[in-house]
User: What shape does this take?
Amino acid sequence: MTVRRRFLTALLAAAALSCAGCGNRAAEGAVETVPEEKKLVLYTSHKEEVYGPIVKEFEERTGIWVQVTAGGTTELLDRIQEESGKDSCDVMFGGGVESYDAYRECFEPYYCNQVDLLDETYVSKEGIWTVFSELPIVFIYNNKLVAAGEAPQGWEDLLDEKWKGKIAFADTGKSGTSYTVLATMIQVMDMEEQEVLEAFAEALDGNVSDGSKAVVDEVDSGIRLVGITLEETAKKRIAAGGDIAMVYPKEGTSAVPDGCALVKGAQHSENAQLFIDFTVSNDVQRLLTEQFCRRTVRTDLQKESDSAPAKIIAFDLKWAGEHQDEILTEWSILLENGE
Assistant: This one.
């Protein structure tokens, strides 16, 4: 068995277990016995099935103990901002990189040790974040209740009266993906920014899902007929036998990467840098494509990928980061006013 295959096998086995570094060992008091130079405090918006095996393997290779706090992208970034200067977190793992740009004052520039192998399209020129995986936005629909020919094929289709109140879309206060969706719609659709937000808010008819997982759950169960989510999330539910099908928007979609970033003033800065390097290592990036239904950001592995074709737009990350606060503020107002 090759070294890489042994690594992948070990990670898959670890995925079936509770992850090392999540509350269990803390409850046993193990954290008090770990010297500071062997600690890392990680905030992550990834699901345990993703971060668990990666954290476990990192711990085993480095001997560093990882304390994990999981939650939604937006709530964790807000927490990092509020905790500024308190040495509460060393590294943020997960969430669209445009959100990292919006919270750039919270992060310390760092260029990972394999930055030259990363797709330059997704490299932060200022080192604010390091990309982890490429994540296209897709539509899903309940294939028991909606015929393939009737499902929405493009962004404008979602605004059709027949889908009003039947679209699953996550709360932007909990899901960073939802902001990516709004920014994508604004950049793709031939409408003014305000028109896009108003039209989409009206299409939702006041229905907002409680997080990214709820979007897929609602469509799978038939509570909502269509939804907007990540390609990875859709593929996993389809593979698990869910009653959903997936559509790549015909006008094009974004494939904004999620990332990892070094928190400014991190108490365990060197360990955080080692973890960031590990997330883009050959082993971890191969795991993404082979087992996690994600697209790699390494150019040497992209050539081997068999990802489905999709029309990917030239998403303006800088614009999305700079305008996040104002867009989300306007979006909240529209939802509160019942637009």
The first helix runs from residue 3 to 15. Residues 3-134+257-302 form a domain with the D-Maltodextrin-Binding Protein; domain 2 fold (CATH 3.40.190.10). The CA atoms of residues 69 and 251 lie 37 Å apart. The beta strands are 39-44, 65-70, 91-96, 107-108, 130-134, 137-142, 167-168, 226-230, 244-247, 257-263.
